[in-house]
Amino acid sequence: MGGRPGYLTLPIFSVVAAIGYVYYTTVFVAVPRWLGLSTAAGVANAAAFTALAAACLATYAVAVRRDPGRVPPGFVPDVEDAESTVHEIKRKGGDLRYCQKCCHYKPPRAHHCRVCKRCVLKMDHHCIWINNCVGHENYKIFLVFVLYAVVASFYALILIVGSVLHSVPKDEQPGSDSSRTSIIICGVILSPLALALAVLLGWHIYLILQNKTTIEYHEGVRAMWLAEKGGDLYHHPYDLGVYENLISVLGPNIFCWLCPVLNTVGNGLRYRTSYDIPVSTPPKKIAAHSQ
């Protein structure tokens, strides 16, 4: 059951507990069994994994607490603005998108979240594991957290497998059975977790390369089907090309793409589209989200 955005919930507690358990088992059980904490290799791996775990916790905390982006209460789309050549409309009626629950217009790519009970800028989805929406202001942090979590999970798996395959000394301490049990439990937790996180990361990389949100992907499937049915070709209006798509999500500085810094492009109320041209033209309306 979800709570108010930013509040601690059972899923959040579960994530923190899992990170803590994996960290303890990897650094204080797996590394000593395989490399030993008194060796240079053991210390180096323990330090590297500690830094990675700290990065995971830090980015996770920001993803939980960071507001995904609220629609200003007085927002009204300027249909006469020549710089904004695309205005999203409702599927039915052709009117500009208006949220009856929040009582204001919705900018392009914004959606109303039934869990958070508010409109979120460039909403991707609501994530129960952070008890927050993933939107314009926290999408990059969410993505970087998933990246760090994937690297940490596979790193931990390598250390755990190495400790299992390592020939344990004959004078092993009596507590070896409990340590072996901890490693087995950790491996059982990590194996499906690493796979799930890798799939999630791959999915969002695919979306970023096309400059789509999860919601836009599912809506695009339907739009593509309708376009093909009518003999037309569907083109996602926010697809600017691979490099420009990456910049729009990860920021203009390529050296900060994988860093947990907030360098979001724009204010979330207007986005560049493939229809943008330097010559002033009347604004277009495209069939868009019904939420």
TrEMBL record:
Enzyme Commission number(s): 2.3.1.225
A biological-process GO annotation: protein targeting to membrane
Protein name: S-acyltransferase
Membrane topology, record value: Multi-pass membrane protein
Keyword Transmembrane: yes
Family: Belongs to the DHHC palmitoyltransferase family.
The UniProt record lists the keyword Metal-binding: no
Catalysis performed (reactions): L-cysteinyl-[protein] + hexadecanoyl-CoA = S-hexadecanoyl-L-cysteinyl-[protein] + CoA
GO molecular-function terms, A-Z: protein-cysteine S-palmitoyltransferase activity
This protein's GO CC annotations: endoplasmic reticulum; Golgi apparatus; membrane
UniProt free text on domains: The DHHC domain is required for palmitoyltransferase activity.
Main localization category: membrane
Domain Palmitoyltransferase DHHC: 95-218
Lineage: Eukaryota, Viridiplantae, Streptophyta, Embryophyta, Tracheophyta
Family annotation (PROSITE patterns): DHHC
Coiled coil: none
Transmembrane regions listed in the UniProt entry: 7-31, 43-63, 141-162, 182-209
Organism: Zea mays
One family name in Pfam for this protein: DHHC
InterPro entries listed in its UniProt record: Palmitoyltrfase_DHHC, PFA4/ZDH16/20/ERF2-like
Keywords: Acyltransferase, Membrane, Transferase, Transmembrane, Transmembrane helix
Compartment(s): Membrane
